Batch of 2 targets.
Target 1
Amino acid sequence: MLITDNSVKAAGAADSKIVTRHYNAFGQHMKDLYHTQVYKVNVDAGFTCPNRDGTVATGGCIYCNNDSFRPVACTSAHSVRKQIEKGIPYLKTRYGAGKFIVYFQPYTNTYAKVETLEKLYLEALDHPDVVGLAIGTRPDCVDEEKIALLEGLAKDNFILVEYGLQSIYDKTLNFINRGHPYECFQKALAMTAGRGIRIGAHLILGFPTETRDEMLSMAGEMSGLPVEFLKVHQLQVVKGTALADIYAANPFPMFGYQEWIEMLADFLELLSPDIVLQRLFAAAPDSILIAPVWNKTRSELLRDLDDYMDRRGSYQGRLRI
Ligand code: SF4
């Protein structure tokens, strides 16, 4: 079975080409919901992270360099409103986007008093083209009061909480200095589920603490949880991180390009077809990326993944029992 209603527009140069995908992709999911292209507009609301400021730890996660996933235009020097007003016209012109999700991305975006969060979230929602929020955070940075705030906002808006998890294995969470065990994620999920809030999870595959089979097992684990959205991507070593020092001292195997395509196909076959994929690979800027270096664009990776899955007769959930 191919997920035939899951054709999405390829990005960049291939904008006009319709590509059939073999998995439940975020772009199409949002288009189905809102009947127009929905894009994320990234904002930096000036949050910090308890894994960096000493509340949980000071070093942060060993792979973390926020510059590797923050667009240049996204800076807390401007108010949330100003960042949105600057980002939306560009996305409309460049991609023909019709509606927008405001993405609170860098650091930990529920790490403040609930009154502060409410003000920032309402500021973001107060734009006629904004239909909701995506909020990236840690599972140890939510509580009943914050979830109740999100529950209230979710009555009239698309509210997605993206919990950084990275791995279901405590041995890996310890290795990466994540500062919380897997159980913490499970508790956050239990608090969030069934309240109208969309739940996302973020996984990284490729840590040297895990076997390939252990990485693949995470697909089954996510499928048994109230996770609706998933980001999964290859581990990248970037400059200015503890992982870069570890890698320099003792290089470990990383995913090659074709290996990653095959890994994704295997992972997707084991994943529930109901889970919406938000990201399938990481793309740190060339200026800070150490490994693995693939020199592939987003469009190339998505096309190669589709071609590979097509040849293999592969689709999301194929091996799900
Ligand atoms: S990855 Fe997220 S949780 Fe970890 S140190 Fe960076 S901002 Fe904090």
Target 2
Amino acid sequence: MEKNYKAEQTVIPEKIRQMTAGRASRTDGTGMSNALVTVFDDCVLKIAPYRGRNEETVEVMRWLEGKLPVPKVLCYESDGVHQFLLMSKIPGKMACDEYWMSRPDELVTRLAEALRMLWSTDVAGCPRIRDIDAELEEASYRVQNGLVDIANTEPSTFGEGGFRDPQELLQWLRDNRPDYDPVLSHGDFCLPNIFLDENGISGFIDLGETGVGDRYRDIALCYRSLRSNAEGAYGGKVYPDIRSMALFDALGIEPDMDKIRYYLLLDELF
Ligand SMILES: Nc1ncnc2c1ncn2[C@@H]1O[C@H](COP(=O)(O)OP(=O)(O)OP(=O)(O)O)[C@@H](O)[C@H]1O
Ligand SMILES: [Mg+2]
């Protein structure tokens, strides 16, 4: 759908051009999406394909201001094809930075702390609900419209020993809904979206899926992200000292591996 999207060729709205004029910048290559992220000295411009729910993301970001460390929305505009989000820059380093990856105990403690910060946020008035119904509804839309990129899934999900196709997985997810434990959920809780500095959690970014959702939505993605970053899955170093199961010790919980599996399978449809 958005494969041929070229954010580089878009015309940046005048107001944002003025707000960023003359500032040194660099393009960030971290994300896996079609977004073009330009990092300035104290702000960040994210240009992404326009999807109906973008305004909601900005609403969620504004609602979170003062509740959690999130980027402040400095300007948001859309031309119906692209969305332009100019936001404040979060200090610190991504949790997947070599600095934190080489400090496993501290990293895992911080990730657990980041999850607890989300869970202790009062969700009253949160402008977005991402409960299982909402997720399955969107997953169904994606399956019906051929938007699931099978090439981008775990090799074991589809094919021999796995699901025949996204439709079969969707049906399994509908038939095996776990109980629902609502909290504030980041929705894309992977290490590059969590920033840490010497004082603790310096910020949460990439809030396009943030809303009220199940506690395990974030636990599952955090666990997987910790594991894949430690295995060097994104071309980085391998960190044999990072034990992804240590996350549960830091959280003081017995992991519900079935629920983790459910949310990782659900994520395969996105
Ligand atoms: N407000 C910010 N402050 C500091 N760095 C940022 C900020 N926003 C983005 N970045 C940097 O740019 C990277 C990519 O941005 P982001 O995570 O928002 O996009 P993405 O993962 O490509 O997109 P998406 O998940 O929305 O499809 C981040 O991992 C981070 O390194
Ligand atoms: Mg991201």
